[in-house]
Amino acid sequence: MFLKIIIYLILSLGAQVHLDVTPSEIKAGCTDVLTITCTFSKDTTSISYVSSVLLSHKQFSSNASYEDVASIFEYDNQVQTHSNQENITVSGQILEHSVGNLTVHWKTPTQNQSGDYKCMVHGIDQVGHSIVIFADANVSFSIPQTSDTDPKITELGARLDRLDAHWTDINNGLLARIGALEDNLQQVESILFTSNTTHQSHRYFLSRYSYRDIDLGMATCHQFGSHLLEIDDQREYDAIVSFLSGGHYFDGVFVSGSDARDEGHWSFQRTGNAMAFTPWAPNSPSDSERENCALLWRSTGWKMVDDPCYDNNLEVHVICEKSL
């Protein structure tokens, strides 16, 4: 009687399979990367066609069994990992169903990665039988001694020193740039403004030039990181009047305040909030539909008056307000 038998051979002698492990010993906390590399080529005495490669691993234990780690198939050359660990990367290829490699990298390996490794190359021999050729290797594990950790500590110390020097350079560079920006800001301040004063937590800047258009004045304040003066109470007003009384001879200064949106109802342009404090001069405001902006007028003792917002032919400056 003839039996149809598919012969399955497992060979190790004469097979062109090599399994290399680097390093061969994991030292706890000191080994950065464990690399397992299986290389193979067609051996005319045993295997004729390579179809797949499988790398498996088992820990050192009497009852441990091999578990798949990674594999690759000739038909699509796609490497698959069978480990759910995040610190593993795999690569490999099979070229012309005859030569190739399968490599696994474990970052910061632990005792779990020590043990026996086996690389199994599946294929067909010259007769047509299924055949597996393999190679194995092992990785040991140890607790490092002082002689092992000292170089690591020295290396980490050197890396920290380099990082410290790097951040010091960055910090110094940033400080230099901040200093240059502050110098530029002071130059801009000296160009745009003639003097400044402080009241409580605010600083006030008086423009060097006059403005016929309040929008240009507000834009100047905005570019400087401030806003047109908003007078909130008597104490702030008194501080501004004292500031303006120090030898300034222009006609007046624009301050925040307008009734352009609603005639007779004055509010700040920036926020739209109603003006709670309005030190109007006698007979002001005039309620003219053309005079929709608030100014402090020198001839009235720096009382508030209403005047045109645009095409103002008088010498009107602005005061910008900035929080400290």
Automatic annotation (TrEMBL):
- Give residue ranges for domain C-type lectin: 199-303
Q: Does the keyword Signal apply?
A: yes
Signal peptide range equals: 1-19
Quote the InterPro entries the UniProt record gives: C-type_lectin-like, C-type_lectin-like/link_sf, CTDL_fold
Q: Known CDD domains for this protein? A: CLECT
- Write one Pfam family the protein is assigned to: Lectin_C
Keywords for this protein: Signal
- Coiled-coil positions: none
The keyword Signal is assigned to this record: yes
Q: Which PROSITE patterns match?
A: C_TYPE_LECTIN_2
Q: Which named protein is this?
A: C-type lectin domain-containing protein
Query: What lineage does the source organism belong to?
Result: Eukaryota, Metazoa, Spiralia, Lophotrochozoa, Mollusca
